[in-house]
Structure formats: structure tokens, C-alpha cells
Amino acid sequence: MTDSVLCIGIGNEFRRDDGVGVEVARVLKTMKLPHVRVIEQTGEGAALMDAWAGAEKVILVDAVLSGQEPGTIYRINAHEQQVPRDFFSYTTHAFSVAEAVEMARTLGQLPPTLIVYGVEGKAFSEGIGLSPIVEQAVQAVLEKIVGEIYAATPE
Amino acid sequence: MSSQTIKVDYLARVEGEGSLYLKIKDDKVQDVKLRIFEPPRFFESFLRGRKYTEAPDITARICGICPIAYQMSSVHAMEYALGIKVEGQLRELRRLLYCGEWIESHVLHVYMLHAPDFLGYPDAIALAADFPDVVKQALRLKKIGNDIVNLLGGREIHPINVRVGGFYRVPTKAELLKMVENLKWARDAALDMVRFTAKLPFPDFEQDYEFVALRHPDEYPYNEGHLVSNRGLNIDVADYEQHFTEQHMEHSTALHSVINERGSYFVGPLARYSLNFDKLPPSVQEAAREAGLGEVCRNPFKSIIVRSLETLYAVEEALRVIGQYERPEKPYVEAEPRKATGYGCTEAPRGILYHRYSINDQGKIMTAKIVPPTSQNQKTIENDLLHFAEQAIDLPKDKLTWQCEQAIRNYDPCISCSVHYLKLEIERD
């Protein structure tokens, strides 16, 4: 694996704002950034741990429902703080993002760098399409991620 | 006279969300309600007007844990409608793909979600702190399931290589042979899994269930067979709706599925095992005996052993399919659309998953009906809770709540398929 950064967009595009991570991943893919691999995941934790195995620097993006303003962007450095268990509580997976990060920490399998981006969602009902406020956050989170990638691979 | 209220706002380690309410009065369970807020039947309406060829890819999105089951039930239903049959190596590849999904799903549930209940851990992370090697082995075993789904499904998440009539691309023999070494390791790991789960402490709890599963004359069921039960049901999949009815319950917006004239029934590993023990290979039967199981198992807590046995079976079946594989000339059977209705029912990791579609002569989907396994088990879960809580009624509040959650997880309820918001509430007054 020669890619120096792995970006993982997590979510379900059929649950409206839950699809924000997937949307970010799809836009990121079209940017074809050098040394960057972009994948989509549903958020099932064990699969997530497989996906990042061997990667040096990993950036995750997922939807959050924490009661803050929709569109709010969070950034967690997994080596510096725990991922709050209820942070991604909307996910339908029982063993999900927060559990995967904490399990990897327990087993000594955290990637050397793991940054988790959360985007506060508004609507999580069945359906397609992001809320306008979350749609706007996609651009902002992309800029942050791109900045993060170039900080990682100065050329 | 005792009076107590127990409420748990969030039921962890269940795929999805929902709520359970238990009312206890004078040491008797007065009422049990599995409250399920089923989303509008979004996918059933979303499918209407789409081409029949889109059904496997769209329905795969319903569940991130068992996309293969959705694909398999949908392609079988469409093939029924089109009047084609997928046989030979294409059929074998479908079994192999299902092996991958069973391995992934069962290993995830057994180690990450259910085992912590038995061992007194709040979650799998705490379990991993004390048993890191067990959890590492589990994650590696699960990954071998993922690898099968990756190779045949095209990609791990929302597999896209399955189509009506077969596959878009079929693997070469060499691609499959690459997995053999890992699968041989997996066979030992699955045997360890059976032995690990067999040693867990089990509540003494048996119920007289009506088990419902597919049964096939030649094999342990995945994709095909008659629907049978231990109370005489033996029907073609196409007759499902003549024998099973979905009822509206007052306490839930979801539908409860019942077997006509008899009521609740049980689908999933315990049902498959108890109705198909004779179809398991001798090595798996032997492992079952060694684990202390008979040919029928009525203790739902022991479903964790049965999931481990089915994982062992899936590994052995994968090795069998790969061993006999010869790459077919064509990756799929062709078919012309025609106006018809088709029925499909396959064994998802959690039990039978029924699909029905009507298509027009252009191949457009006119109606779709999907009955996931978890909604079929709802009434049985309620019954278990009623009887189990009564038997355990003297336990302190936190222990009773713990054991009730554990009893729900016996069913590995996948609420992301069928429901939202699971909360557990036990009320004593």
C-alpha cells in the first residue's frame, strides 16, 4: 500500500444526513488527490478496523447527532482523546465507529494517525438527499480534510 | 407485594434501535411490548417503477450487515418471475458468497455483541482488554468472511457484482484458491469458537417454539428449499403469504408476523439447526455433540453456540465449493422480462428473508414486499421476555435488566433492517 493517506466516508445515503460521510468521500474521490485513497464504509466497526489496517494516516468522516447545531463540524484526534460513545449514536450499527476506535486502542492497533471528523446532522429519516445546512458543511469539511492531507504529505 | 420500575433508555449491542417495555406487578410479568417504530416502508415504495435488474443493488442497501441476504432473496424472486433457474457453478458461487456473509455476521455477533453478556463485560472492548488474543482471532476470522464477500460481491460494502441470473463477473479458480490457506486457518478458529461458546454459563431456559426454516433435500439451507416447521408446515416459498400474516399491533407501528392459526414462530440459527441437523456434515455434527448440543436446541441462549457451529459449517462449505469449482463459461443466465410475480426466500444470518415482486412486461417493478427475519421474531422475543423475566423475577434490578437484554440479543435482532429506536424499559408497580 503506497498511499500515504486513507480517507473513509461512513454512512447510509438512504438515511438522509447519515449519508454526509459518503458524500464527502465521493467528492474527495473526484478530486483524485495524489497518494490519497478514498473508500466508503457503512460504519460497521470490525470492517472499519480491517479497512484501516496497515494505513499510516487515516481520516474518517461520519454523521453525528449530539444535539448541537446541524452542520457543526467536529475534529477528534484519536490518539489524544476518546471518541464519545454516544457521539455517533444515531448509527444503526451496534459495533460502530467509536467502538472500533476504542477496540483498536485496546488491542494496540490504532493507525499511527487517526483523525475523526463528525458532521452534525439534522434529518435521519429514510430518504435521499442531505439537508441544505449539512450540504454546506460538506464543502467546509472537504477543505479541512484537504488541508489535513497536505499537512501530512508535504511535496 | 413488590413494586419496581426498571428503565433502560438505550439497548446497546443490538443492530439498530427500538424499545422494550416490561411491566411487573406482584412478582408477575403483566405485560411485554417490543415497541418498534418501523420506518415507512421506504424501500418497498422506492423500488416501485424501477427496473427488475436494480432490485439486488437497491435492496443490498437496506442492511449493512446482511446485504448478501437481500441480494439473494431479490434475485431468486426475480428469477422466479422470469422463469429461469440458476444452477451449476453459478449456484455454487452463490452459496460461497452466502458463506462469507454468515461468517462475517455470526463472528461479529458472537464475539462483539453477545459474548460480553455471558462473561459479565459491559462490551467487547472490556472483553478485549482481558482476552486480547480471543478478540484478535475473532477479528481475523471475520475478515476471512469479508474477503469472500469482497471477491465475489465486487466490494465489501454494498456488493455490486450480483445480478439477476448470476454475476457480472465470476472469479477464476486461481482467485478462489488464494483463499484456501486462510480458510483452513478459519476452520480451526471456528472450532475454537464452538469450544469457547460451549463453555459459557447458560441460563436454564427452554421454550416449546415453532421453528421455521428452509429445508433442502441435499444441503444445509442457504438459498433454496421448502419452508418447513416442527409443527408440520411444509410449503413452497411462493405460498408464504398464504401461511404467514403480518399483523398491526397497537403498541407498535411495525408489523408482527405470525403463522396463521398458531401465532409466534422462531427463525434464525436455532431454527435452521433444529430443522436441518441431519444436513450438517459429520465434522460439524461432531463439534455440536462435543459442545453438548442435541439435534434440537430449545434454549435460545445457546444460539451463540449454534452461530459458532454455523460459522464452522460456512468455512467447511466454502472450502468444498472452492475445491470443486470450475469457472463457468457464462457469468449469468439471460432472461427476457415478462409480466409476472416472483417469490424469493433465503436464509439470512438471522433467519428467513422473504421478498415478493410483481413486474410488468417491460420489467418494471410494480409492487414489492420484503419481510425481514427480525420482524418475524418479534413476537417470539416478547414471549421469551415474558417467560424469562418471570423465571428471573427475584434478581436484583440491574441483573434482571442485564439478563433481559441478553435474552433479546439471543435473536441478534437486526433492527437496521426493520425498525428504529430500541429502548428497554422494565416497570414494576
How does the SSE layout of this entry go?
The complex is a heterodimer of chains A (155) and B (429).
Chain A: E1 5-10, H1 20-30, E2 36-41, H2 45-52, E3 57-64, E4 73-77, H3 97-106, E5 113-120, H4 132-152
Chain B: E1 5-8, E2 19-25, E3 28-35, H1 42-47, H2 55-59, H3 67-82, H4 88-119, H5 124-130, H6 132-153, E4 162-163, E5 166-167, H7 173-177, H8 180-198, E6 212-215, E7 226-229, E8 234-235, H9 240-243, E9 244-249, E10 252-259, H10 269-276, H11 282-290, H12 303-324, E11 340-348, E12 351-359, E13 365-371, H13 373-391, H14 397-409, H15 415-418, E14 424-428
Parallel strand pairs in B: 2-14
Antiparallel strand pairs in B: 1-14, 2-3, 4-5, 6-7, 7-8, 9-10, 11-12, 12-13
Helix pairs in contact in B: 3-4, 4-5, 4-6, 4-12, 4-14, 5-6, 6-8, 8-12, 13-14
Please explain how this structure is put together.
The complex is a heterodimer of chains A (155) and B (429). Chain A is of the alpha/beta class and 155 residues long. Chain A is built from four helices and five strands. Chain A has one domain: Rossmann fold, CATH 3.40.50.1450. Chain A has a five-stranded mixed sheet with strand order 2-1-3-5-4, with helices on both faces. In chain A, helix 2 packs across helix 3. Chain A is globular and about 40 Å long. In chain B, the strands form five sheets. A four-stranded mixed sheet of chain B has the order 1-14-2-3, with helices on one face. A three-stranded antiparallel sheet of chain B has the order 6-7-8, covered by helices on one side. A three-stranded antiparallel sheet of chain B has the order 11-12-13. Chain B starts with a strand and ends with a strand. Chain B is α+β, with helices and mostly antiparallel strands. About 4% of the residues of chain B have low confidence. In chain B, a hairpin with a 2-residue loop joins strand 9 and strand 10. Chain B has a single domain, classed as Cytochrome-c3 Hydrogenase, chain B (Orthogonal Bundle), CATH 1.10.645. Chain B has 15 helices and 14 strands.
